Structures are given as structure tokens and as C-alpha cells.
What does this fold into?
Amino acid sequence: MQLSNNFLWGGATADFQFDGAYQEDGRGLSTHDFETDGSVQHPRCNTFKTADGQFGELPSSFFAPDSLPDGAEPCLYEDRYYPSHKAVDHYHRYKEDIALLAGMGMNVYRFSICWSRIFPTGDELEPNEAGFRFYDGIFAELEKHGMQPLVTIHHDELPVALALKYDGWSSRHTIDCYVRYCKALFERYGKRCKYWLTFNEINAVRGFAACGTHKCDNQTHYNAVHNMFLASARAVKLGHEMMPGSMFGAMYAMSELYPATCKPEDVFTRLQKRRESYYFIDTMARGYYPSYAADLLARRGVTLHTEPGDDAILAAGALDYVSFSYYRSNVCSTETRMNVIGGDPNPYLELTPWGWPIDPLGLRFLMNELWDRYQKPLFIVENGLGAVDKVEEDGSIQDDYRIAFLKDHLRAMMEAIATDGVQCLGYTMWAPIDLVSLSTGEMKKRYGFIYVDMDDKGNGTLERKPKKSYYWMKDVIASNGEKLWAE
It folds into this structure.
């Protein structure tokens, strides 16, 4: 079994987990810049200062119900470690990093552009030229190595100034700022980039770091999401006008979901829970709200604040393809209290070191589910295994567990394409070079084909070193997947 020669093989990163250089070349502060590391003494949190000058912190989670206290503003402690500030210093090492990815035979690289590097506060009318120069270098290196860019425009962050002044995506003003940002990107890179993602895991983002909103209640959240829908649609329409032939997607966190039993109530619960993610893709891929949206919002006590013309905007900006992350599957029942990345235990599956069920067949299931529902090309833009890697005495990293994980998932992907007839543009593994974990703020939770010498506090040489999986994946790509079936 073998994939076509135009299949896109690559890797994916996010700027605040990878780039660093948070104060260089005019970059403004981003909403993720206030998140600490996940040490035992100080669990991962957002740090802030209240109106009366007191310091505080809130759990740093997309799913935390907490809200910033009234009058609070994010602030930085002098004695805390903020991983995004340094990350793994891709900003100064991008030529080396891209050369390593190209050395594997990758022909696509997914990366995110930091909004506050281009528009430091989000409100500027003209972009920051120094910020653009960094990305000019990225594009030039990709072209040098024959790799296509896959650009994430908004990866769970926005300029903190928009969060403080307008409450982020709660305000329609942020839509206009986002479209101005998109226009600047399209003008600069429109002839150099075909594939774009308007938002990352939009069905999983919530709260200050990801949405710039001070509150996490459902009313705030779903109205902010409505504004994000409108922003995405306007960007897609503008992009199609400015860049004929360009393709736009948005990215969704899409763990597969199973009912815990064949009890009808559990099966129906699965339908309702699944619609919590479908809600986002249905609206953005079809260009209109699904029929069940009214019930879903009513059950959450939400009234959408819409304006005349919103429906036309959504219809004019439907997505060209559906992209998603897949790391695990979940199980649900009538008793389950779950979020996008957690549900009931599945006794039939093994777990990763961080407790995530390993389910390669779930990927094939999901690909068929999405293809049947939308009949639009898919793009797997995140999939991978977070694990503790050990450097052996001879300097090697024998990550056979990662090879086994990827082998099973890539086989499932190929079966969905070759056997089931699913159209899939490509696969970008998360993350090809070790970076800071979003969920825990750690470095020890490593995903990469390439090891980075850095610990959880940012100590280390930052030397890059290929792991065993690097050379294995190189052979997989060279064979367009055929190697997976020869082992």
C-alpha cells in the first residue's frame, strides 16, 4: 500500500511553544505570555494583578471555569518561569530546524504566525516590518528546501492589548483587527502559501489565554465563538479574492468518541456530546448553523448576539477543507462529565504516560466520519505521542514506543484513504522537534523526532539531536508509506 506522490508529509508547531524571543523585534505581548511552567511548587497558571495591587493566579486550562477577578490584569512575576518567553529558541535557530525537517524528506511544514509579532497591540493600522522579516526568513528556507508552508493564522492566542481593552473575542472590534491582520499576511505571503488555517482547535479554546476573554461562562464563550466564526468566514472570502487557488481550513480537536455501552441512553448521549464538536465544523464547513444549534445553546443558557448580515458572511466564507488533531479517543455515558480531551476510561486501550488512550483505529473511524459528513478533503495536522525520552550513554534516543504509536496510526490513516476512499491532503505530526507542552508547560513531555537539550526550567544547550524515530520516519516518507506495510 502506498500513497500518491502529492501527499503532504510534514510536522506542526505553535509559535508560543516553539519560537521564543518574546520581546524581540517589536513583538507585543501575547495572551499566552503570562502562563507559568507546570512545576510542583507552582502548578501551571495565568498570573495577574488585581485592581488593588495584589498578585494572584488562576489555573491555566482551556477548560477551567475560573475567570479573572474584576479589574485584574495579567502580570509577570520576577521569580516565575514563563516557558513561552524562551520556548526552544526557534526564532534564532529556524534555519537549522527547517534543514532538519527537510532532511527527513518532509514536503510541508505547519507553523503559526504570532499576531502580536505583526501587529503588537492588534490595533495598529500598519504591520510591524521587523516581525515580518522573521517570517520572510521562514518562507525563504522552506522554498530553499522544497517544502510548502501550512500557516495557522490564529493559534490559541491574540495580542494581550486586545484582551485588556476589548475583552478579546467578546468584541466585534477584534473581528476587524483580525481581518486587517489576515490582509497583511495575504499581501505579504499570498504568492508563497496555498494552505491556510484560520483558527486552531476552535472547538476547544476558552478563556483568557486562548480567547482573550476575562470570563469562561457559556454566554461569553459562545458569543466569542460566533465572532470567531465571522472572522474566519471574512478571512476565507478575502483570501479567495486576493489569492486565487488558495485553500482554507480551520483546525478542530477531534478525539473519537464511543458510547460506554449499547444502552440507548448512552448511545444518544454520544450523539449529543459529539454535536458539541460538530457545532463548530458544521457552521464553518457548511457556512451556516446546524439545525441542532438552537437546542445545544438553549441547554447551555446561551443567547447569541447576532447582527443583520451575519448569515451572509458565514455563507460566503465556508471552509475548503477540514483539518483536525487526533491524539486519543474517549468514552461517554449518561453519567460522564467530560470535555474535549477527557471522558470515561476505556478498558480495551493502553494509555500514554500522560494517561491518554492509544487508539489508532479511532483515527480511521474519525476520518470516515468526517468525510461522510462533509465530503471535503481532510488534513491531519496534529497527531503524536508525548513521552519521556532518555538520552543513552552513546548519545542515542531509542524511542521505539513513538515508532510503534506512529506506525499504527499511519497505517490506520492509509487504510482510510486507500480502502475507504477518504480524501486526505496530508499529515503533519505534532511536533517534529521537541517543544514546550501546552497542557503542562513541561519539556519532559516530548513529542519530537528531534530531541532538544532543555529541561522544564529552560536549562540546557538547546542542541538538536535526531532520535531513532527520525530515521524511521524518513524511510516512511521516502516510500510514501509503503515501508509501514513491509515491517
Residues 112 and 152 are 4 Å apart (CA to CA). The chain has one domain: 8-30+83-486. The longest helix spans residues 218-242. The radius of gyration is 21 Å.
